[in-house]
Every structure is written in structure tokens, then in C-alpha cells.
Amino acid sequence: MSFFQKLKDKFSKSTDNVTEKFKDGLSKTRNNFANKVNDLVARYRKVDEDFFEELEEILIQADVGFNTVMELIDELKMEVKRKNISDPTEVQSAISEKLVEIYQSGEKTTGHINIQEDSLTVILFVGVNGVGKTTTIGKLAHMYKQQGKNVILAAGDTFRAGAIDQLEVWGNRVGVDVVKHSEGSDPAAVMFDAIQSARAKSADILLCDTAGRLQNKVNLMNELEKVKRVIEREIPGAPHEVLLVLDATTGQNALLQAKTFKEVTNVSGIVLTKLDGTAKGGIVLAIRNELNIPVKFVGLGEKMDDLQAFDPEKYVYGLFSTIIEKEAE
Ligand SMILES: Nc1nc2c(ncn2[C@@H]2O[C@H](COP(=O)(O)OP(=O)(O)OP(=O)(O)O)[C@@H](O)[C@H]2O)c(=O)[nH]1
Ligand SMILES: [Mg+2]
């Protein structure tokens, strides 16, 4: 059975709206990337060097990342030889299978969130300005609240005017408490209070907002260190996740941001926002493969339920859905 057929069996009749979210959110990338691949296989009669060269170009344009593309093309060439594939349309299914394999082949790190079952879980969000930290916290608070968890938000961005209000708007919308100090105050002190408050209210999950940091602003990086230190001191083993938020529309620049943050703090996972806003959704693979940090959540729109746990199979289904649904009828 082809991989397309497998994905079709698994997802095309699924009624959960998660698959739909991936399909909708990836429509720009699908129109760009998958359609180009489709054109390519329609133009070639056999799978030769020229075919692979064009495919390489398409993948690079989709922001898959140079190293990842090279790996993918090598693997595909081997697969084509091994399975004796000569028909380009069969290659399409093989490409999608390799995309999932490449995503999953990294270290043991998974998309699982390190939730403490019997005690407070602290999740710290970091990233440069405007990537979607505050919005992601709002969406995640909603998701956990839906699961019956008691959630509290910490307004750790005391730097940008309006940041505290923005988090409060989310708190009201979702119906969770926000711990805040005044603008310009010490974010580490906000975290300290938020932890005390979370304990007093037996909260399950504390989501901590931080100021957008430009990598070169040494003082802001130092501030982040201090915030982490306070959390660690109050709760050994915390923060249980440090999620780096990256904006998918910034492409390869997102990779550079990730490399910088990785140097100064222990990033445990990535939230890749605004996938719905880019035609270059291949960036998911580049991030996973070149940084070896798992993508734990993806932002597929601006609404409250547009944040989804990342699932490589649903992602690839979203990328190729029009072809998959037609192909294997
Ligand atoms: N389309 C789309 N927009 C998003 C997504 N996530 C966030 N946004 C938008 O991105 C903009 C910036 O989001 P914020 O949450 O304020 O970003 P931030 O990282 O907190 O920014 P600073 O507080 O300035 O550091 C907002 O307009 C959000 O609605 C997403 O997944 N898709
Ligand atoms: Mg913010």
C-alpha cells in the first residue's frame, strides 16, 4: 500500500476538526509546494537527474532547509532504486513518506509536553518580538482549561507598554487568572508571586509570558536567566518546558533565532506560529532536522482553537491533501 493510501485511510474520513485545521492552515503551502510537485511529476516521464534537480529546487523554495533537502533527495534516490520506481507519480507518495520519516528520525525527543501529574507544571515562553508568545499562551490556556486543568498566567513581559493588558485580555477571554505587576517592574518578581499564587490556588499549570528579546540585547538575555533562576529555586525541576516561539513567516531567520536562544537557554521545544500565513511551511522540517528541537505546537490561525499539537502525519496530509484525496480514489 502506498503511503498516500495509508494517509488517506487514516485521515480523509476523520471527523475531528484537528485534521481540518491542518488542512486549512497549510493551504498556502499546499498551493505553492504540493502543486509544484504535482506539476513536476506531470511533466516528467521518468525519474532522472533533472527530475531530482527540479525537486531539490522546489523543496529549497519551500524553506525545507539545505541540509534537510540534501538528505531527503539522497534518501529518495535510494528508495527509487530499491523499489525500482520509474513512474514520477509514485515518487510523490515516496516524498511524503520520507518527509514524515525525516521528521521522526531525530533524537528521542518527542512532541510530548512534560506535564507534572500531581504538582504544578511551569511552562516558560521565550522568543523575539511579535512572534506570537502572548497569543500562544492564550490559546494554550484555553486548550488546558478545556481539559479541565486549573491554569494561571504570569505577566512576565513588563517591558513593552500594553503587554500586561494584552495578556489580561486573553485571561478574561479564556477565564483564567493573571498574576501581574506594574509596567517596568522586575519580571523575576512577577514569577515569584505567580508561583506563590499558583500554589495557594492549587493550580495545575502556570504559563509564563516574557518580553520579546532581540538576541543581541544582553540585558534582556540576562533578565531571562534571572527569571529562570527564580523559577528553579522555587520549584526544583521547573520550568518543566521552555518553549521557544518562532514565526514561520520569517523563514530561515527563525532558524538563526533558534540557534541563538539555544546557546543561552535550555530550549525544550518549539512553537511554530503563523504557519497559516506562509507558503513556505517546509520550515517545520528544517527546524526539526537542523536544530534537533521538536516542534511541539503549531499556530494555524489567530483564533483561540487554532493552536494544535504538532503531528508530522497530519502535517504531511495537510500538505498533500488535495492530491491524496484525488489520487487514491
Ligand atoms: N495568522 C496567525 N497569526 C498569529 C498566530 N499566532 C500569533 N499571531 C498574531 O501575531 C501577532 C503577534 O502576536 P503576539 O502574541 O502579540 O506576539 P508576542 O511574541 O507576544 O510579541 P511581543 O509581546 O511584542 O514580544 C498578533 O497579531 C497575533 O494575532 C498564528 O498562528 N497565525
Ligand atoms: Mg507578548
Number of separate domains: 2
Structural class: alpha/beta
In which order are the strands of the major sheet placed?
3-2-4-1-5-6-7-8
CATH fold group of the largest domain: Rossmann fold
| H/I helix tally | 13
CATH architecture designation of the largest domain: 3-Layer(aba) Sandwich
Number of strands: 8
Poorly predicted ranges:
none
GO molecular function: GTP binding; GTPase activity; signal recognition particle binding
Catalytic activity: GTP + H2O = GDP + phosphate + H(+)
Family: Belongs to the GTP-binding SRP family. FtsY subfamily.
Main location: membrane
Task: Describe the 3D structure.
There is one protein chain. The longest helix has 17 residues, at 27-43. α11 (252-264) links the parallel β5 (241-247) and β6. The chain is of the alpha/beta class. Strands 3-2-4-1-5-6-7-8 form an eight-stranded mixed β-sheet, sandwiched between helices. It has two domains: 15-108 and 317-327, SRP54, nucleotide-binding domain (Four Helix Bundle (Hemerythrin (Met), subunit A)), CATH 1.20.120; 121-312, 3-Layer(aba) Sandwich (Rossmann fold), CATH 3.40.50. The relative contact order is 0.19. The chain is elongated and about 65 Å long. It has 13 helices and eight strands. α4 runs antiparallel to α5 and α5 crosses α6. Bound molecules: guanosine-5'-triphosphate and magnesium ion (MG). Guanosine-5'-triphosphate (GTP) binds at residues 127, 129-135, 157, 160, 163, 212, 245, 273-274, 276-277, 299-302, 306. Involved in targeting and insertion of nascent membrane proteins into the cytoplasmic membrane. Acts as a receptor for the complex formed by the signal recognition particle (SRP) and the ribosome-nascent chain (RNC). This is Signal recognition particle receptor FtsY. It catalyses: GTP + H2O = GDP + phosphate + H(+).
